[in-house]
Design a protein that fits this description.
Mean pLDDT: 83
Distance between the termini: 54 Å
Largest sheet: 2 strands, antiparallel
Strand content: under 5%
Radius of gyration: 20 Å
Low-confidence stretches: none
Structural class: mainly alpha
Helix content: over 70%
Number of helices: 17
Number of domains: 1
Number of strands: 2
Amino acid sequence: MRFAFSLPVAGLVANLVGFSSSVALIFQAANSMTGASSQLTSSWVFALCIGSGLSSIVLSLYYRQPVLTAWSTPGAALLIGSLHGITPQLATGAFLVSALLITLCGVTGLFARLMHKIPTGLAAAMLAGVLVRFGMNVFEQLAIQPVLIISMLLAYLLAKRLYPRYAILLVLLVGSLLAWQQHLLQGNEQTLSIAIPVFTWPDLDIPTLLGVVLPLFIVTMASQNLPGVAVMRANGYQAPVSASLSVTGIINLILAPLGCYAINLAAITAAICMGPEAHEDPKQRYKAAVFAGIGYLIAGVFGASIVSLFAVLPQALIMGVAGIALFGTIGASLHSALENEHQREAALLTFLVTASGLTLWGIGSAFWGLVVGIVVQMSYHKR
């Protein structure tokens, strides 16, 4: 079998999107603690990347499915506010307890049983709602960098007809070349340094338990793991829910003293590895998640200094490649969500609520979209 370059490209794009969308939040969260330091921040990036990389590689190779994990982006946003005045020791204790709760959800199978009750059409509608913003971002960037985005779109359309397996690779190459030619690459010389993990002995008190542990656990489960499972199901994979929670929870427990606040199933970056652009054969797409995991491991070795490399790339290039890479998945999700006439209205409302970006009590729109869809679907069954 010939090696498909589309697989490592999908993994690289997943890495780019993962870093560009959340690293700034990780920095803010780490620096909001009392006694924060640059070494501590670098240790956080190290632990999160190593945890995401290891769990992605282990789960994807074992199950031969694209099981991509990542750090919790909503969790980082939550920690920016909740870690003010809290010491690194108390924060570490909170991370350990949250990881223990996630592990218990995996070992007991409670979360898996809950997920099996969600209709596939609603899961697909939620996925489309999560991803549609990335597709729209492509055309928002068109007004800012028209030559770059139009060239990338033309490269995509041409490659889809001639060499569909390499469509995203061509988009990335064309975009990078134009960004260089137009002097859009930012920064001067970038230096990398090996990350030195900082071990923090845990501590815990009641205010931290109530103010950090429970919100972090709830947000990670509702805003990350739930969409992560839905992404896999919407793409035709039987998600190993309990095993994924157990593995990510255990790795989170081990790495929490180094700054790993939460590892969970990925949704947006996972969709990049699960779409037809990664590989035409769904059975081969797990390799894209493995390549993404390897990318995270490499990034973890360099800790916070890896951010200097990603900062070179213009935002229009990253958002353009990410959005174009998700076109196929967005289309397939919308088709799956709306093809069942009896679920169509529930799926439509799920999609709209999820796409709205609604956040209530710190929980993102993906959760509320499913809640609305399930309530609407149940109301039809009661008629």
